[in-house]
Amino acid sequence: MKLTVNRKAIERAGTETVEEISGENIYRCYQCGRCSAGCPMVEAMDFTPNQIIHMLQIGDPDVLTAKAPWLCAACFTCDVRCPHGVDISKIMEAVRLLTLRQNRDHITPDSLPGELYEEMPQIALVAAFRKFTA
Ligand code: SF4
Ligand code: SF4
User: Fold this and answer.
1) How far from the centroid of its chain's Cα atoms is residue 13's Cα?
2) Could you report the per-residue pLDDT of 93-131, keeping only the tens digit for each?
3) 127 Cα to the center of ligand 1, angstroms
4) Which residue's CA lies nearest to atom 1 of ligand 1?
5) Max CA distance (Å), the chain
6) What is the value of pTM for the model shown?
7) Residue 100 contacts by C-beta under 8 Å, 6 or more apart in sequence?
8) Average pLDDT value over all residues in the chain
């Protein structure tokens, strides 16, 4: 018997997990874009913060491979600017945790150039590994 994968159910489960982890209601976002207009990291992101929310709202699994959640600096600018009080930094963290909780690292120590270890303060490296590794 051929097994069929209920893609929609998987996608919806992903969105519910993000809401569960972040404690934020993704559907409060009405896509005004004020968060993205003020985000200091938006130029480096592949998707703007409001696009990330939209992907979650429609259950787009590509959100799991997006770079934007890893680039979020958790500066809370979006939270302050959002008319509906959506805390995107918590949502970005929840998206990262979906990967990390599968025991998948975003970076590994041996993937970084050696000079980085000499140039960067140790505290910054520790903070980075806490954010990017499972
Ligand atoms: S918390 Fe993240 S998404 Fe929000 S403005 Fe700061 S960098 Fe951008
Ligand atoms: S500012 Fe708030 S409501 Fe507007 S797009 Fe961003 S998250 Fe959605």
Assistant:
1) 16
2) 999 998 898 888 888 888 888 888 888 888 988 898 889
3) 17
4) 74
5) 57
6) 0.86
7) 106, 133, 134
8) 88
From residue 32, how far is each of 53, 71, 73, 78 by CA, in Å?
Answer: 11, 21, 21, 12
> Residue 38 CA: which ligand 1 atom is closest?
5
- Cα(120) to ligand 2 centroid in Å equals 34
Other Cβ atoms less than 10 A from the Cβ of 123: the count is: 8
Distance in Å, CA 43 to ligand 1 centroid? 11
Identify which of 70, 28, 22 has the alpha carbon closest to the alpha carbon of residue 45.
Answer: 70
Return the ligand 1 atom nearest residue 76 CA. 1
Closest alpha carbon to 14 in 55, 71, 48 = 55
